[in-house]
């Protein structure tokens, strides 16, 4: 596992070096784009990452061990979907005289996606509980 992790870090460093050098040497890249990317990096590492870790710790403290993985996965997916869908749900910039701008009911769609995510998590948690029950009910093989 340690070797795989080192290889992934090395690949990540090479890819990021290529991206940064490409951005710095490209004449079409404006300084505003670089400032935006730096802001995204700071927001991710300073806000989103600690928030995700904190929520993961809270889930670990307040949920049974066998359902922690499905709950954490559902929370992470729900958060990612919310970040992507929130601008559409809010509809900022939509004009009333153009019905083709954001023509769907995005709030209802977001709630449907949440239902799918959490139903899947509940089914996964149920399957894990059933597996654990079957393991406990099955007597060990005498050797």
Structural class: mainly alpha
Helix content: over 70%
Domains (count): 2
Contiguous low-pLDDT stretches (5 residues minimum) are: none
SS strand fraction: under 5%
Structural shape:
flat
N-to-C series of helices and strands? HHHH
> Number of DSSP helices?
4
Q: What is the mean predicted local confidence, pLDDT?
A: 87
The whole-angstrom Rg is 22 Å
The first-to-last residue Cα distance is 32 Å
Q: How is this structure best summarized?
A:
This protein has 143 residues and is an all-alpha fold.
Description:
This protein has 143 residues and is an all-alpha fold. It has two domains: 62 residues; 81 residues. 78% of the residues lie in helices and 0% in strands. The chain is built from four helices and no strands. The longest helix has 32 residues. It starts with a helix and ends in a 6-residue tail after the last helix.
List keywords for this structure.
4 helices; 143 residues; 78% helix
Map the helices and strands.
Layout: H1 2-25, H2 31-62, H3 68-90, H4 106-137
Helix pairs in contact: 2-3, 3-4
